[in-house]
C-alpha cells in the first residue's frame, strides 16, 4: 500500500499546501481520500483521473470537498470525458456539490456514482476494503479505514478526540490523524497534536502522520506534542510526501 499526500493544510490552503487530500494505491487499486482546494491538480499530476477507482470524501466542509467541483468539470469536459466515479460520502456532500453547480441529479450522476455512507458502513473497491467510522465534528462526517493484503491505514478526516476513531484505528499500520492546533483542542470540532498522539497510543498503531495542521502551526512543536503521548514514529503530512505501508 502506498500513500501520497496531495495536500494537508487545515481549514484553508496556501500557495504551496492544498487543503486535505490523499491518494492511496493498493494492489493496483487507486482511491482518493478527500479532495480539498488545490488537490485536484496535484492528483492529475500523479495519475490520469481515468485511473482513479473511487473517491472518499469524509465530509462537506470546503477544505475537504471543494475540488469535487474541479473533478466535475474535468470529468465532463476532459478529452475523453471520464465515466462516473464511485463517490463514498455522507449524504450532504453531494447536496453541497449539487447546490454549488446548480445541476440536476441526472447530470451529477454522469460524474459521481454517489454511495452514501454512515459510520459503521463497509464497502469494497476491487478487493480493497473500506470501513467508515464515527467522528466528532460539526457536520455529518466519517473517518475511513483502508485494508488491503494485510496492510491498513486510517484517515480521520476532521474530528475532536474520539473513542470511535480509536476503535477504527486499532492495530492499523498508519494513522493519518488531524491535528489542527498544536496545543489546543477545539471542543467538539478538532484535535490537538497531543490528542492525535493519545489516540495513536490508545489504538496501538504502527505510525502516526499528523495532518490538517493550520498553516500557522509549527511542525516540530506538533511532533513533540504528539510524542508526549505516542512512542512510535511521527511525521507531519505535506503535499508530495509519500509513504509505503
Ligand atoms: Zn477540515
Ligand atoms: Zn471539517
Task: Please describe what this structure looks like.
- With 245 residues, this protein is of the alpha/beta class.
- It has one domain: Metallo-beta-lactamase, Chain A.
- 27% of the residues lie in helices and 29% in strands.
- The protein is built from eight helices and 14 strands.
- The strands form two sheets. The chain has a seven-stranded mixed sheet. A seven-stranded mixed sheet has the order 7-8-9-10-11-12-13.
- It binds zinc ion (2 copies).
Task: Provide a quick synopsis of the model.
The protein is α/β, with parallel strands linked by helices.
Low-confidence stretches: none
Fraction in beta strands: 25-35%
Q: Could you please say which CATH topology applies here?
A: Metallo-beta-lactamase, Chain A
CATH superfamily: Ribonuclease Z/Hydroxyacylglutathione hydrolase-like
Using only C-alpha atoms, the radius of gyration works out to: 17 Å
The CATH class designation is: Alpha Beta
Q: Let me know the average pLDDT.
A: 97
- Overall, the morphology is globular
Topology, element by element:
Elements: E1 2-7, E2 21-26, E3 29-35, H1 39-46, E4 54-56, H2 62-65, H3 68-77, E5 85-89, H4 91-101, H5 105-109, E6 112-116, E7 122-125, E8 128-134, E9 142-148, E10 151-155, H6 163-169, E11 174-178, H7 193-203, E12 207-211, H8 219-227, E13 234-236, E14 242-244
The structure holds zinc ion (2 copies).
One zinc ion binds next to loops.
Amino acid at each position: 500500500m502506498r500513500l501520497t499526500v496531495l495536500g494537508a493544510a487545515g481549514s484553508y490552503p496556501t500557495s504551496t499546501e492544498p487543503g486535505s487530500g490523499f491518494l492511496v494505491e493498493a494492489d493496483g487499486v487507486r482511491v482518493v481520500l478527500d479532495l480539498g482546494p488545490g488537490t485536484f491538480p496535484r492528483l492529475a499530476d500523479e495519475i490520469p483521473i481515468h485511473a482513479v477507482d473511487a473517491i472518499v470524501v469524509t465530509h462537506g466542509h470546503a477544505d475537504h470537498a471543494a475540488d469535487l467541483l474541479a473533478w466535475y468539470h474535468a470529468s465532463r469536459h476532459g478529452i475523453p470525458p471520464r465515466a462516473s466515479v464511485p463517490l463514498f460520502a455522507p449524504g450532504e456532500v453531494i447536496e453541497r456539490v449539487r447546490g454549488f453547480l446548480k445541476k440536476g441529479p441526472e447530470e451529477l450522476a454522469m460524474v459521481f456514482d454517489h454511495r452514501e455512507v454512515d459510520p459503521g458502513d463497509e464497502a469494497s473497491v476491487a478487493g480493497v476494503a473500506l470501513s467508515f467510522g464515527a467522528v466528532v465534528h460539526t457536520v455529518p462526517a466519517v473517518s475511513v479505514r483502508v485494508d488491503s493484503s494485510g496492510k491498513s491505514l486510517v484517515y480521520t478526516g476532521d474530528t475532536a478526540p474520539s473513542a470511535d476513531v480509536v476503535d477504527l484505528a486499532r492495530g492499523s499500520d498508519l494513522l493519518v490523524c488531524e491535528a489542527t492546533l498544536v496545543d489546543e483542542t477545539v471542543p467538539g470540532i478538532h484535535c490537538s497534536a497531543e490528542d492525535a498522539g493519545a489516540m495513536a497510543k490508545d489504538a496501538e498503531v504502527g505510525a502516526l502522520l499528523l495532518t490538517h495542521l493550520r498553516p500557522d502551526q509549527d511542525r516540530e512543536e506538533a511532533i513533540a506534542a504528539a510524542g508526549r503521548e505516542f512512542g512510535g514514529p511521527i511525521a507531519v503530512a505535506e503535499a508530495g510526501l509519500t509513504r509505503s505501508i
